[in-house]
Amino acid sequence: MSTPLRTWGTVNLAVDPAQRIPELLEEVALADQVELGSDTQPGSVIYPQPHHQETRIMTQALTVEIWSDLICPWCWIGKRRFERALAELPQRDYVEIVHRSFRLMPGASPRVAREVLLQRLSSAQQVTAMLDHVEGEAAKEGLTYHLVDTLTGDTLDAHRLVKHATTQGLQEQAVERFYRANFSERASLFDRTSLLRLAAEIGLEPDTCAAVLNGNTYTAEVDEDLRVARALGDNGVPFFRIAGRQTLSGAQPSSAFLTALQQAWDARPQEVASMATGEVCGSDGCIISAQTQEN
User: Fold this and answer.
1) Distance between CA atoms of 165 and 178, rounded to whole angstroms?
2) Which listed residue, of 9, 106, 235, 268, carries a Cα 20 to 30 Å from 28's Cα?
């Protein structure tokens, strides 16, 4: 029997059983400036320059929002596949990535992922086969996964630190460091000492990070990300929204991401700026209009 297809936006995603890991986890928890030349002497002849109108096409950035949870194994895989597609996009330098938070297990205490999956699946053999499959897919993307000992739980604090890192220009570094710590190094994203160590490694100031964790800073922003995802009908991650319109769900093949990116780029509006030039002086002289000359 063929695998059923789930339609999300304009993209079909084949539902592989191993891709249900995030769902299973959630079920358990519920202007330029120009100066005059210094060599201009008094009495120098200043030649008139013609009026002209200049039209410029303003390149508008393409924003891609990525909802993910740092304990979701498909999220890092999906991120890598997206990045491979982005590298092939000719306009990649005009694409802005915004990472959005998604908590698969809000309020849940840390637990070993294998134990959580055993609650939902029929046998230990099925859990092992699922984890082996995901590790194999990760390896294809150059990622090392050790899922047997991976912890799950509420990632609120880790997401709050990512929000803080974003204000410091370190969004990408924070996301990558937390993924690697969780899936490759068996490091905890739930222990504050561990989180502070990881944050310091990417250049975040420890005392400031400690203050974030000790309070409620960025909690509202994390909650808002989840609210927006729910409003879009998203119940799982990874989830991508391109240019505020086109959405893709799941760790799609790179080809699907590339197609979506190119379509979004081609469909984006262009801003045309028309600049009328009047009387100005520059290093090459001064513009004198016909009317001024007649007077």
Assistant:
1) 12
2) 9
Interval 106-128 mean pLDDT: 93
| 174 touches 146 (CB < 8 A) | no
DSSP codes of every residue in 125-140? HHHHHHHHHHHHHHHH
CA distance 81 to 95: 16
**What are phi and psi for residue 269, nearest 5 degrees?**
-75, 145
pLDDT at 269: 75
Rounded Cα distance between 100 and 153, Å, is 18
Res 1 pLDDT > 50: no
pLDDT tens digits for range 272-284 = 444 444 454 544 5
- Using pLDDT thresholds of 50, 70 and 90, give the confidence band for residue 45: very low
DSSP structure string for 44-78: ---------EEEEEEPPPEEEEEEE-TT-HHHHHH
Q: How many domains does the chain have?
A: 1
Q: How far apart are CA 44 and CA 37, in angstroms?
A: 12
Within a domain: 52: no
Q: Dihedral of CA 254/255/257/258: which sign?
A: positive
For tokens 């469909």, the residue is 267
Residue type, 196: L
* Percentage of the chain exceeding pLDDT 90: 67
Give the phi and the psi of residue 151 in degrees, each rounded to 5: -95, 150
Residue 70: domain span: 18-30+59-279
Tell me the mean pLDDT in the region 162-173: 98
Widest distance between CA atoms in the chain: 95
pLDDT digits (tens, 9 = 90+) for 224-258: 999 999 999 999 999 999 999 999 999 999 999 99
Of 27, 68, 25, the C-alpha closest to 250 is 68
Does residue 288 sit within a domain?
Answer: no
**Does 48 fall in a domain?**
no
Q: Is the peptide bond preceding residue 238 cis, with omega within 30 degrees of 0?
A: yes
